[in-house]
């Protein structure tokens, strides 16, 4: 079997200290393989977002290890950490807003700006990503003027510009109506199928979880179920 792209061993994450300490993850071990689509489900407050943040190297665990392609990520700091995150991951998170007053294109090229990609190349790749999401005609519009579905498609375009290996999505369809949410889901699964991008999706939506290869259920900071989804 192939080596895992992410390997998590006994990860714990506590917030606060002393009497205020809260153990949000209490010993999570799992492996994720390249090309998988993985749903992380569980009740509100169960630790899903905390797990996603540590998997995506946005937050450090209190203890335990996270390996990315066999490399222990605790040794990554500062620039090396930012660079790894920026080139390997794409994010479709509700809290990573589009900048409302900026153009759609300026929003989409931001990860490339961070990566130090030159202006002409940024524009070329930004427009290619927008075309892929059928938003090329909105490139010059302000992000604030887009519909909910168009905003989420712009967020996906932004997640794609650095050619990520893994897309992390936290409730990607949470704020969308059913049919718009369905379109956004279709796009994510098409990227998974056609480009082999690994999907890690936090969701309350069991229908979305059922479309993934694998469903991991979290309760009170522990994995209580991890199984392949029947096709
Ligand atoms: N920064 C924080 N400080 C203190 N407690 C937190 C913080 N972030 C999350 N928590 C707590 O950790 C638990 C898990 O949160 P979270 O991972 O956001 O759950 P979920 O995404 O499953 O709703 C919750 O009880 C939450 O209140
Ligand atoms: Mg959450």
UniProtKB/TrEMBL annotation:
* Gene Ontology terms for molecular function: ATP binding; ATP hydrolysis activity; transmembrane transporter activity
* Keywords linked to the UniProt accession: ATP-binding, Nucleotide-binding, Transport
What InterPro entries does the database record attribute to this sequence?
A: AAA+_ATPase, ABC_transporter-like_ATP-bd, ABC_transpr_LolD-like, MacB-like_ATP-bd, P-loop_NTPase
Q: Which domain of life is it from?
A: Bacteria
The residue ranges of the ABC transporter domain are 6-231
One GO cellular component this record assigns the protein to is: plasma membrane
What name has this protein been given in UniProt? ABC transporter ATP-binding protein
